[in-house]
Amino acid sequence: MASPAVDPARSIPVLPSPDIKATRDFYRDQLGFGIVGPEMDEYLIMRRNEMEIHFWRSNDRKLPEVSSCYIRGGEVPALYAEFSARGVEKLSPFTVRPWNMKEFYVWDPHANLLKFGCAPEEV
């Protein structure tokens, strides 16, 4: 059994997706995530470095419009530069918000909101 220091507990978002294949394609082709585990029609696990997001198939197309996750860390400025260079659609400006976090947002094809942020001094 791995020690807690080697394998710390993590929080992993699980977002709804009305189309698992479209979700897979977007996160793989636009955001550079890889597929983890077997490909299934009802569930998808995507990972990029330490970022991991799970998706469950939902027939309710409104759910992604009210779902989001926050990704924070020093890698965020480089991700913004990469996503901008790739021409990722629905990419917000990278700016300091009133709560003193420098953030940018990406909406996936189903309207799940990914918020990326870092402290301004990390830029």
From TrEMBL:
Pfam families: Glyoxalase. One of its GO terms (biological process) is response to antibiotic. This is Bleomycin resistance protein. InterPro entries: Bleomycin-R (IPR000335), Glyas_Bleomycin-R_OHBP_Dase (IPR029068), Glyas_Fos-R_dOase_dom (IPR004360), VOC_core (IPR037523). Keywords: Antibiotic resistance. Belongs to the bleomycin resistance protein family. Residues 8-119 form the VOC domain. It comes from Mesorhizobium helmanticense. It comes from the Bacteria.
